[in-house]
Write a structure and sequence with these properties.
This protein is of the alpha/beta class. 33% of the residues lie in helices and 24% in strands. The chain is built from ten helices and 13 strands.
């Protein structure tokens, strides 16, 4: 066998959103008709896609980011260079990069207003061109913050890629996706309820396993930790208690570390523990991308 084949690791392609996050610190989430002075303002790089790519890279995975930016999106290329994310498949298009306006209150709760911008400009030709660089067994990671999700899923499935979906935000755009092609569902309890109609975590898990018996499910439960389930086994991982400052990237950090653990062939309970620890570190820091810890820091904290 060709030695290059032996050393070729599993690659992750993340066709995902890139958003400039305008983050405002407030006493409380604003109400209709109310005017409120903010106590602080920062601009961070975000978008679930970019957050998860950087989490994957910081967790030690070989990750390729795909997606669209506008002329104001150069900071994302710089971030990819800084954190070791391959950016060959990021394309510049006319118009604005996606952006969000985020309020964070004194209890670290957030609310988010999203403008899709360049994230909605993917084309079939672009998707085909990017997927040519990947093969069976590689992981495709998707969130619901770019267009063309049904097409991307179908094409990646034809290639034999493993598809990991974070169905966030959960909306009618996902109705056209053939969910039976998904290998990994990574979701929180709100998305779990939207998919199944149940609020109880056990019932959510039961229902998803029943509908998609071939899939593996990770359900994050905020303060109640996370559950992993497939048709054969189930594990619960409690949280590591910390003082939260900003929960924006908690789920994205968990996703990145979970998939990095899968690629490394770790046992599920160990992956969950590592992912929970990484998330617990991320929520103690401000911002999305800057808050995500490196693998070495997570391993030292666990040790």
């Amino acid at each position: 066998m060709d030695p290059k084949e032996v050393s070729k690791g599993m690659k992750v392609l993340n066709i995902g959103s890139m958003n400039l996050d305008y983050v405002y610190n407030v006493d409380h989430i604003i109400k209709p008709g109310e005017t409120q002075a903010t106590t602080g303002m920062n601009i961070f790089l975000g978008g679930k896609g970019m957050n998860q790519s950087i989490a994957l890279a910081k967790a030690g995975a070989e990750v390729y980011h795909g997606g669209m930016i506008g002329k104001d999106g150069q900071p994302f290329i710089e971030a990819c260079k800084e954190y070791g994310v391959n950016y060959d498949h990021i394309k510049k298009v006319e118009g604005k990069t996606g952006h969000t306006i985020i309020q964070i209150d004194k209890n670290a709760q957030n609310c988010i207003l999203l403008f899709a911008g360049a994230n909605d400009k993917l084309t079939e030709a672009y998707v085909d061109e990017v997927l040519e660089n990947f093969e069976a067994g590689d992981i495709l990671l998707l969130q619901n913050e770019v267009n063309m999700i049904p097409y991307i899923v179908d094409k990646a499935y034809e290639k034999g890629m493993q598809i990991a979906l974070n169905p966030s935000p959960f909306n009618e755009k996902l109705d056209a996706v053939d969910m039976s092609k998904i290998s990994y569902f990574l979701m929180n309890e709100v998305e779990g309820e939207q998919i199944t109609g149940y609020t109880d975590p056990g019932q959510i898990i039961d229902k998803v396993v029943e509908i998609y018996p071939e899939a593996k499910i990770v359900l994050t439960l905020g303060g109640d930790g996370a559950i992993y389930a497939d048709k054969d086994e189930r594990y619960h991982q409690p949280i590591f208690k910390v003082k939260a400052v900003d929960t924006t990237a908690a789920g994205d950090t968990f996703t990145g570390y979970f998939l990095a653990g899968i690629i490394d062939g770790m046992k599920i309970p160990d992956i969950l523990r590592m992912s929970a620890k990484a998330s617990s570190i991320a929520v103690t820091r401000e911002g999305a991308v800057p808050s995500i810890p490196y693998r070495k820091e997570v391993e030292e904290a666990l040790a």
